[in-house]
Structure formats: C-alpha cells, structure tokens
Amino acid sequence: MKPIEPPGLDEIRAARERLRGLAVRTPLLRLPLDPGLPDIHVKLEPLQPIGSFKIRGAGNAMRSAPAALLERGVYTASAGNMAQGVAWCARELGIPCTVVMPDDAPRAKLDAVARLGARSLLVPFATWWTVMEEHRYPGLDGLFVHPVSDRSVLAGNGTIGLEIMEDLPNVEAILVPFGGGGLSGGIAAAVRALAPHVPVYGCEVETAAPLAASWGAGEPRTIERTPSFVDGIGGKSVLPEMWPLLRNLLHGPLTVSLEETAAALRLLVARCRVVAEGAGAVPVAAALSGRAGSGAIACVVSGGNIDAQKLAVLLGGGIP
User: Fold this and answer.
1) Per-residue pLDDT, 141
2) What is the domain range of residue 264?
C-alpha cells in the first residue's frame, strides 16, 4: 500500500467548509482540577450528533466523493464510531451502507448503527483487521471509506486541530487517542502548519499499544492485543501506509494503564458532567500523569459511546 500523504492546510480548511451543517464545532473547556495539577482543556467530541469525532472524517470523505462513486452505496470497517459516521452520512445522502465490525463490538455501537439504517456484518477481529489492511471486503460493493488511511478522512479530522489552535492559541501540547492514526495524524497535520512548535502525542492504553511498540523499534510492529473496555483504540499494528506520516508529524506515544483510564473517565463525569468512552478518557489520563508537561494541554475526548453496563461498573469504582 502506498504511503498516505498528509493533507495540507488548504485541504483541512476546505473540509471545514464542507462539514458546515453536519459536524458541530465542539467546545474546548478547562477541566476544573485541584491546584498543582496540569492545566488540562478537554475537546468534547461526544457532543457530535453521533457521539464521536468520526462524523468529521466520514462527512468530508463522502461529501467530497464524486456522485458516481456513491451510487452503489458505501461501506467501512469499524469497531463502532466510524460505522456511525458513515451510516449517518449515508442516511443523509439516501444511499445504502454496510459496516464490517469485529464480533466483540460494544452493544451500544451495534444498536446505534442499526438505528441509523445501516447493515452490520460481524466478523472475527483478525478478519476485520485484514479489511483495514487491504481496504476491501470480498462481496461488498460501493465506495469503501477507510477509517484511517484516507486523505479526505484525515483532512476532516484535522478540523479539530484548527479549532484547538483558535480556541487555545497558547496550547503547549495536544494529546489525542491513537487507534490507527487517522485522528492524531489529521490533527497533527493542521497543527504542524499553524504552530510547528506544539507537540501532538498519540495516546494509547498499555493493553494495546502498537504506536509505542513501533516508535521504539523505528518501524511498524505487530503486537499482542488484550481486549478491554477501551474498545475504540488499540489495533494489532500501525498500518504501514500510515507510518511515515505519523513518524514525521507526531511527537511520540504516551501510554497509560486501564486503571488510569478508568480514573480519568470518572473524573470527566464528576468534574465536567461528560460521559466519555474508554478511548476518549485515555488522553486525559496521560495528561494527568504529568508526562506532557504542566502548561496548557488540550486533550481530545474523542467519543462517548460506551455501554451503559460498562459505565455503571466504572462509575462504581470497578473495571469491566
């Protein structure tokens, strides 16, 4: 697969115009913390219509695609959030949508895809990952919208970087969940163009941290992945076509534990009255660790689509 080139600032600004009326400009709020803790600001993507940032990348990819490519419908590979983004946009366009999902996808995300009128195709995680690598699924027709390795998806996600720089011009670090690099890479492309001195970190949970393994090795590495309540990030590896872009644009990885992530999720509920899914709480956990500094830190809370049963366990002090 050919390496993905990062979108330019003009492409990201064009994506913002294309997304008007579809994606929300979400608030960036200071997290009220006790004295002595880092100055953390949270970018609240759970407030998007589908409960996650994925509407940005999906919307830009589909609104910029030629009509002829959309006639036979669309499909994507997703653990849940990109599924909802593509399904939402397909419903808007009046075209059929199929989503290839791992068979351990959360019930909340499966139900949301069904409500949006899309068809879910559940497959083993290894099969699902093959779709991510090969950009296709045998027997499915129409436009394939890759959740990560797509320049138009990166440009749509990069609109978050524009908003952060406008709302917090003195930001000293930006922390982003790392799943495949579509979100962190898009944001970093915007930030590099506007403020190259501001580091952008990809944040992972230690049970599934392919970026940290690859960063240490200097090349993409495959890892052993342990499923957890942090289901929105944590693939088997960094996709080879994404590696050059990520190595050039990101400052590095930050890895946290499940316990730190659970504590950050509870903190977001207690202090901001915001429900985040596990992936969305990971950057906040990383910021609280102090490893990104103590100045103004922007944490992208990527989504809030979490099963109610898992949330209840987490709020009760446990780890599902």
Assistant:
1) 86
2) 9-52+151-315
Is 125 in the same domain as 185?
A: no
Count other C-beta atoms under 10 Å from residue 142's C-beta.
17
| pLDDT number for residue 232 | 85
Q: What is the predicted pLDDT for the residue at 2?
A: 86
Mean pLDDT by 10 residues, the chain (320 residues): 92 98 97 92 97 96 92 89 93 94 85 91 91 91 92 98 98 97 97 98 97 96 92 88 97 98 97 95 97 95 94 96
Q: Do 33 and 61 fall within a single domain?
A: no
**What CATH number has the domain bearing residue 84?**
3.40.50.1100
pTM metric for this prediction:
0.95
Domain limit, last residue, from 121, 144, 167 = 144
> What secondary structure, in 3-state letters, does the chain show?
CCCCCCCCHHHHHHHHHHCCCCCCCCCEEECCCCCCCCEEEEEEHHHCCCCECHHHHHHHHHHCCCHHHHCCCEEEECCCHHHHHHHHHHHHHCCCEEEEEECCCCHHHHHHHHHCCCEEEEECHHHHHHHHHHCCCCCCCCEECCCCCCHHHHHHHHHHHHHHHHHCCCCCEEEEECCCCHHHHHHHHHHHHHCCCCCEEEEEECCECHHHHHHHHCCCCECCCCCCCCCCCCCCECCCCCHHHHHHHCCEEEEECHHHHHHHHHHHHHHHCCCCCHHHHHHHHHHHCCCCCCCEEEEEECECCCCHHHHHHHHCCCCC
Q: Are residues 187 and 70 in the same domain?
A: no
Q: Check whether residue 99 and residue 158 sit in a common domain.
A: no
Q: Which residues contact 82 (CB under 8 A, 6 or more apart)?
A: 54, 57, 58, 76, 145, 147
